Amino acid sequence: MSLDTATLYLVATMVAAMLGAMLLLFGKQENIPALKWWGTAYLLGAASVALWTLASNTLGETLSLALNAVGFVACGMVWNASRVFHGRKPNLPGLVLGALAWFAAVMTLDPAASAMRMTIGAGIVAIYAALTAAELWSERRRTLQKRWPAIVVPVLHGFVLMLPILLGDLLHPHGDMFSGSIWVTVFSIELVLYAVGTVFVIFMLVSERTVTAHKTAASMDPLTGMFNRRGFAEATSRLIEREANAGRPVTALIFDIDHFKSINDRFGHPAGDEILKLFSAIVINTLRITDLSGRIGGEEFAALLPCSLEEAVTAAERVREAFANSGIVVEDGPVDTTVSIGVAGGPAGTEFEVLLAAADTALYQAKRCGRNRVEAAEELPLSLENWRRMTAGRGASSATAARHPAPRIEPMGAR
């Protein structure tokens, strides 16, 4: 079966042009700059190959070389698209370096050395493919199992492109025209596969990033930028597991802004939101980068520190002092910003719910003792179920005390 090479090249360019238009349109609709780069690269490369295939015999030497150079620019745009996709700036010198190297090489070669020209051109494309693969490899925030297609496709493109060229040079040692080789047919088929494979990888990366963005949005509190309850619970489980494997203790902190309802009533909810944002910024800036923190309720925040109880109490005091000295002032006057903090630590492997229950008990004690203070839990509950029973018993005792002449006890969890 004989395959017409020119027809195969035209099919490849039509597929590339169609995919490029789709990428460009999708990039404009979703405002993704990298897709615009990829789409433009596909359209530019398809146009240069199509013109070269259809009119290579009628074009002059200079125009033919210029079309090849445009193709190398398109390869540079694919590399730059991978840079832009991962938040890096485009490498504009590298964008045209391949085309300049091509011009410099062909100007020094014998015009009859067509095989050597094709070898140099294939080498330039292979280098750009390797740079693209290296750019994708350097972005390893995702697991390798999910990222390998993005790396393998450009690597295979460079390998498939160079291997036939090198073998072709070996098979034609006397400078026969390379255009008559079977490898040219292989090139045209590989171009179609590479175009389709690359678009598959592009949409895989975009889909992965979209899913990650949605997961992040579902785990973050939009007002403060901290973890919400769900995100905080997921992050703390990973931290506790890591510290348990290393045999290190962890400590939980619960923060509750004092008289927050009064702040909302006196100064309005916008002022209350500013207080919440101020406190979250103080927590983030005061704690270490290895500490986890999140907003788990209205004015209630929590943190998990991979350290001993004593170190956590010191960190809690720093947060309390910084918030108390923040001195925020609104139109109606200064706002009293204080926070009560409960701290509870445990040995390696202690469940987070147990730590949180003990820290909540300590927070309750801090509220009873006048607020604006740090209290450390004296001991951990034997189990979360025991703590729940103890909490229920405390509530029942409070109800009994309300019916008999005895000092009033504030129920557990009152702020």
TrEMBL record:
GO annotations of cellular component type: plasma membrane
One Pfam family this sequence matches: GGDEF
Catalysis: reaction(s): 2 GTP = 3',3'-c-di-GMP + 2 diphosphate
GO biological process: cell adhesion involved in single-species biofilm formation; negative regulation of bacterial-type flagellum-dependent cell motility
Entry protein name: diguanylate cyclase
Matching InterPro entries: Diguanylate_Cyclase, GGDEF_dom, Nucleotide_cyclase, Rev_trsase/Diguanyl_cyclase
NCBIfam families registered for this protein in UniProt: GGDEF
Source organism of the structure: Bradyrhizobium erythrophlei
Record's keyword terms, sorted: Membrane, Transmembrane, Transmembrane helix
PANTHER family: DIGUANYLATE CYCLASE DGCM-RELATED, REGULATORY COMPONENTS OF SENSORY TRANSDUCTION SYSTEM
UniProt-listed Enzyme Commission number(s): 2.7.7.65
